[in-house]
Amino acid sequence: MRPLGTRWMVCGLALLATLVGGALTLRAWAVQPRREAELSGLRLRLERAVWLHEPTDHGDTATLPALPGAPARGQRRLTVELTVFNPRSTPLDFTAGELRLTGSTAGTEWRPSAGGATAFTVRPAELVSVTLGFDVPPTPSALRLEWTRGTERETLLSTRRPRSAGEGPPEWPRRVEELPPGNAAAGSALFHGRLACTACHGNPAEPHGRRIGPALSDFARVGATRVGGKSVAQYAYESLLNPSAFIALECAGQAPCSGPSTMPLYGETLSPQEMADLISYLVNLRAEE
């Protein structure tokens, strides 16, 4: 069994660079928990993914100095927490360089900027935690976190880089009709899988199940009545872009929902196609489901 000190050293290599002096704060723009894959004998699970934010993103007027280990000015850091497990009976090597962040524009990719040279051997039945950071300059591209071992490749995460102060608001159309045609089946996979919406809203097929946020089992009907003059699709679209714009009247236990909303700003993490797919799924949710 590897000494405890060595295992914690692996866990903290990149974390040390990302949590510098308390000058950076975390905000869960791209939470994608427990996305698992197995390649060439190793099993990897994405536990958490968050974009790092400077305090100036939250209204502070002071400009922070550049600190050792912090992202360069104008860059944003995506920090990912992973667990690597070896189910085999023989040791297997792993390197952080197997992870890369790729853009939708051909040829754009980013390697880990924190802990990127980390390489270690995972012994049989051993579980190792790893934290990595990717520093990304301004880009409109949709981003994918990919894991590659040999000829095998798996996408672990889809996200977008949040815009920094002064870069302007996200470029989303005003009307939901301007999005590409949505696919309800793909939206269901997002809702129940990668986005883990059931963690707060529960399973729409079980409207009385345990949940934190408002139930969505009859969203096709209820959503159309939330804001006068807005269709259910437009209401869903605006709520995903700005969850605090309208606070639902009833949350868990029929209690009033409190504001501001804790729902992620999905305009920062979804592609236009994913947004359309998720909305297509939501607007087809009816009480009989």
Question: Mind explaining what this structure looks like?
Answer:
The protein has 289 residues and is an alpha+beta fold. It folds into two domains: 128 residues, Immunoglobulin-like (Sandwich); 107 residues, Cytochrome c-like domain (Cytochrome Bc1 Complex, Chain D, domain 2). Helices cover 19% and strands 24% of the residues. It has six helices and eleven strands. Strands 1, 2, 3, 4 and 9 form a five-stranded antiparallel β-sheet that branches. A hairpin with a 2-residue loop joins β10 and β11. α2 crosses α6. The longest helix is centred in the first third of the chain and has 15 residues. The chain is globular, with a radius of gyration of 21 Å. The N terminus is likely disordered.
What are the defining features of this structure?
Cytochrome Bc1 Complex, Chain D, domain 2; 6 helices; 24% strand; alpha+beta; 289 residues; 11 strands; Immunoglobulin-like
